[in-house]
From TrEMBL, chain A:
SUPFAM superfamilies: SufE/NifU (SSF82649)
InterPro entries registered for this protein in UniProt: NIF_FeS_clus_asmbl_NifU_N
PANTHER family in alphabetical order: IRON-SULFUR CLUSTER ASSEMBLY ENZYME NIFU HOMOLOG
Every NIF system FeS cluster assembly NifU N-terminal domain range: 6-129
Pfam families xrefs: NifU_N
Name of protein: Fe-S cluster assembly sulfur transfer protein SufU
Length: 154, 418
């Protein structure tokens, strides 16, 4: 069934057992909403120099938005900012591909579990769900680190 | 096939709606349960649109050529049809807009720019309800912000009804306008118009009714309602998009100032000032949605031929059946009235902790079209502590078999995320 391409096992796993969920100490906090459907996320980032010490979050929303936040936590915590930005940019590229990108080994190496979202990119109404936490992270990082980070992530 | 008393001959009716034969996702026939968002259109309406463009297209109210006269007669004929449909005392009380949102914004702006005794200002109050569609919230918030008038709200009860227990404190001598929905677009609740209007009349407040979810589904009689303004939209009642209606009492339309200025709405224009055409033209600046009005006229003819009371009875039977079948689904909670009494055929629900987005996605794969989200009525979701709902909404062509398909689909959703 076509639905299985969206609801990959790995996505449903993250949805049912989210990683790093809950709000912890952070340098900046943002609240993002998906106004068309009511998905919400509150997200905090904690930096240790240029290293992401923590990304904590709380939210309500569909399986795609919640699983995406869990995958983000897995992927970004412990990374250097520049590497995290590369992951974010790659994820954005995949999600905006309208199902045209078949992730190759190089992409899979960067995105790990997040390649499972490739199927979601075929559903325009759901792309926003998948990107919600990633946009929140980008925003929170800009706030935590100031304009320098904003310019680099833009 | 399930037979229920009061059902229309849907087999015949469905033949009028070409879209209902649409097949989606590898051979699944569409089950269209998103009628509160927009209805499908019968061939009679599509033919009227085509015939207008192919035979009579011209601008209205200007020009002496035959096409201009035909177009004007068709456009004004649509106004006659709508006036009769809502039992308006005069055709001049029917203003064409582009949708119900524009109709409601028009009322808010008339009152914002009006002189006494209608003027809304810092000393006065506006009353709406927590149950409103955003289109009957935001225009009043804007008016409140711009004039300093206080915006007051009726709350809603746990079972999805308006809480009128404090009506005398909410509607007071300071109230200038009370605006509320006749039928909730998210919960289907039919509101007690009489009680609210009686209190509004006691204090001399105007009453505006959002009938967007009522006009398609029940006989609408603006004289019986006794409101001052009634707004609705064409596309939810088998008509095209881009055409809405504002009905207003004649003396109000005479007294109140225009909002949009332009061609068509004037009497004379000079460089120093202008005078205005009488209503309804005073409120219809610019080239109106002519084809869309003609299409709405055809929709009104179509619905009238079937009979609004029969349509209401059909939907009541479907609602009763749907409420019963949905309550059999494990973990399903209806948001709003849980019986078919005083409610329309729009049913919102949550299914366990499965997010409505996920519910809607799986149903779509089965060919079932429902709406998910906050339905432009976010205060209702906040009131019940939920982020969103899944909403199934029915119309004159909906069948018990489609209710069954929805219920089976929801079982499938539960298994998928179980």
């Amino acid at each position: 069934m076509k639905l299985d391409s969206m609801y990959q096992e790995v996505i449903l796993d993250h949805y049912k057992h989210p990683h790093g969920r809950g709000l912890r100490d952070g340098d900046a906090e943002v609240h993002h909403v998906n106004p068309t459907c009511g998905d919400e996320i509150t997200l905090r980032v904690k930096y240790d120099g240029a290293t992401i010490a923590d990304v904590s979050y709380e939210g309500q929303g569909c399986s795609i938005s919640q699983a995406s936040a869990s995958v983000l936590n897995d992927l970004l915590v412990g990374k250097e900012l520049t590497e995290a930005q590369k992951i974010q940019a790659t994820f954005l590229e995949l999600m905006q591909s309208k199902g045209q990108i078949e992730p190759d080994d190089a992409m899979e190496e960067v995105l790990e579990d997040a390649v499972a979202f490739a199927g979601v990119s075929k559903y325009p109404a759901r792309v926003k769900c998948a990107l919600l936490s990633w946009m929140a992270w980008k925003d929170a990082t800009a706030q935590a680190l100031g304009d320098g980070a904003e310019r680099k992530t833009a | 096939m399930t037979q229920l008393p009061g059902l229309l001959d849907t087999e015949a009716i469905r033949k009028d709606f070409p879209l209902l034969d649409r097949v989606v996702h590898d051979g699944k026939k569409i089950v269209y349960l998103d009628n509160a968002a927009t209805s499908q259109k019968p061939r009679q309406v599509l033919d009227a649109l085509n015939a207008y463009y192919e035979q009579s297209n011209a601008n209205v109210h200007r020009g002496v050529h035959v096409l201009a006269e035909e177009a004007t007669a068709l456009y004004e004929g649509a106004r006659d049809k709508v006036a009769a449909f809502i039992n308006a005392p005069s055709r001049d009380e029917v203003i064409f807009t582009k949708n119900a949102s524009e109709s409601l914004n028009l009322v808010a702006n008339m009152l914002g720019w009006a002189d006494e005794p209608y003027r809304v200002d810092a000393e006065t109050e506006i009353v709406i309800t927590e149950m409103e569609h955003h289109s009957n919230i935001v225009p009043w918030q804007l008016l409140s912000q711009r004039t300093g008038a206080k915006l007051k709200w009726f709350g809603i009860t746990d079972d999805g009804r308006l809480d009128l227990s404090n009506i005398d404190e909410i509607i007071t001598e300071k109230t200038k306008i009370v605006s509320f929905t006749l039928v909730s677009n998210i919960m289907g609740t039919i509101n007690p118009v009489d009680t609210i209007i009686r209190r509004a009349q006691e204090v001399g407040a105007l009453v505006c009714i959002d009938a967007s979810q009522a006009a398609p589904h029940m006989a609408l009689d603006v004289q019986a309602l006794q409101a001052d303004f009634v707004a609705f939209t064409g596309h939810k009642m088998a008509g095209p998009t881009g055409i809405g209606v504002l009905w207003g009492r004649q003396e109000l339309l005479e007294d109140l100032p225009p909002f949009l200025g332009g061609g068509e709405m004037i009497e004379t224009v000079s460089m120093s000032s202008s005078t205005y055409a009488p209503a309804p033209h005073k409120f219809e600046a610019g080239t109106p949605p002519i084809a869309q009005a003609v299409g709405l006229g055809a929709a009104v003819d179509y619905l009238t031929a079937i009979g609004m009371d029969k349509i209401a009875a059909h939907e009541h039977a479907i609602t009763e059946y749907a409420v019963k079948r949905l309550s059999e689904v494990e973990g399903l909670r209806i948001i709003g009235p849980t019986t078919a009494e005083d409610r329309g055929a729009t049913i919102s629900f949550v299914l366990g902790d499965i997010h409505p987005h996920d519910v809607g996605q799986v149903l779509d794969e089965l060919g079932i079209a429902v709406r998910v989200g906050h339905h432009c009525a976010r205060p209702v979701c906040l009131r019940y502590g939920i982020p969103a709902t899944t909403r199934a909404s029915f119309y004159l062509y909906s069948t018990p078999a489609e209710v069954d398909a929805l219920v089976e689909g929801l079982e499938h959703v539960r298994n998928f995320f179980g």
